């Protein structure tokens, strides 16, 4: 990542790739900035991502999955929300059967981590501070989640993606990507032997 982005320490991203806009866009912020595009353009990540899903994620889920073809990259700079609006993904057209995995690439604290309610409708948001190398699995389709303004002096760089267990996957629902990637989410099979057929949900 360091060589590809030109940032030796991702937590200091803001010193290398400052945003062009003076003010942060409201709500979901700018998920298609030049900073984000730099991450989406790293081709080596695609093969690592596929291998990660095939080995780690399928073992955790307990079966093969359909997975989001491109993960969502998040960059939360100091003093900014990044993705500030608390929301449930199903409100944006996501499948309630999705399992979301959130992977910070920097150590995160309560100042710049993900906040999630404990059960649907509870709105008792609590932070999920994590160390680099840890991962959070949660029900983003049905649980409200978001983050607070980053009060630290460190950028949080993370990615998240959604999978659907193969046993409950079905065609039909078109899910927007909500990032700088054009078009809806394409659901790829974790193993080539699975039927793909260009299915999207």
Itemize the secondary structure elements and their pairings.
Elements: H1 2-5, H2 34-40, H3 44-61, E1 65-68, E2 72-76, E3 99-104, E4 115-116, E5 126-127, E6 136-138, E7 145-146, E8 156-165, E9 187-189
Antiparallel strand pairs: 1-8, 1-9, 2-8, 3-6, 3-8, 4-5, 4-7
What does this structure look like?
It is a single chain. The chain has 201 residues and is of the alpha+beta class. It has helices at 2-5, 34-40, 44-61; strands spanning 65-68, 72-76, 99-104, 115-116, 126-127, 136-138, 145-146, 156-165, 187-189. Strands 1, 2, 3, 6, 8 and 9 form a 6-stranded antiparallel β-sheet that branches. The radius of gyration is 16 Å and the shape is globular. Residues 195-201 have low confidence and may be disordered.
Instruction: Encode the helix/strand succession as letters.
Output: HHHEEEEEEEEE
Question: In one word, what is the shape?
Answer: globular
- Spans of 5+ residues with little confidence (pLDDT < 50)? 195-201
Helix fraction bin: 10-25%
Rounded mean pLDDT is 85
Radius of gyration over all CA atoms, rounded: 16 Å
The number of strands is 9
Main sheet properties: 6 strands, antiparallel
Compute the number of helices.
3
Structural class: alpha+beta
């Amino acid at each position: 990542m360091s060589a590809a982005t030109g940032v030796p320490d991702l937590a200091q991203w803001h010193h290398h790739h400052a945003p062009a806009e003076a003010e942060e866009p409201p709500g979901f912020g700018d998920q298609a900035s030049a900073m984000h595009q730099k991450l989406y353009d790293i081709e080596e990540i695609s093969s690592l991502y596929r291998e990660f899903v095939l080995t780690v994620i399928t073992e955790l889920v307990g079966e093969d999955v359909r997975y989001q073809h491109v993960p969502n990259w998040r960059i939360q700079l100091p003093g900014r929300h990044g993705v500030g609006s608390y929301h449930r993904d199903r409100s944006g057209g996501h499948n309630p059967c999705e399992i979301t995995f959130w992977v910070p690439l920097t150590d995160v604290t309560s100042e710049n981590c993900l906040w999630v309610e404990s059960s649907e409708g509870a709105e008792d948001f609590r932070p999920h501070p994590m160390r680099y190398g840890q991962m959070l699995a949660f029900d983003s389709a049905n649980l409200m989640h978001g983050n607070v303004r980053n009060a630290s002096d460190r950028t949080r760089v993370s990615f998240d993606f959604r999978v659907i267990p193969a046993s409950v996957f079905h065609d039909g629902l078109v899910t927007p990507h909500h990032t700088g990637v054009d078009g809806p989410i394409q659901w790829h099979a974790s193993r080539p032997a699975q039927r793909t057929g260009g299915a999207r949900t």
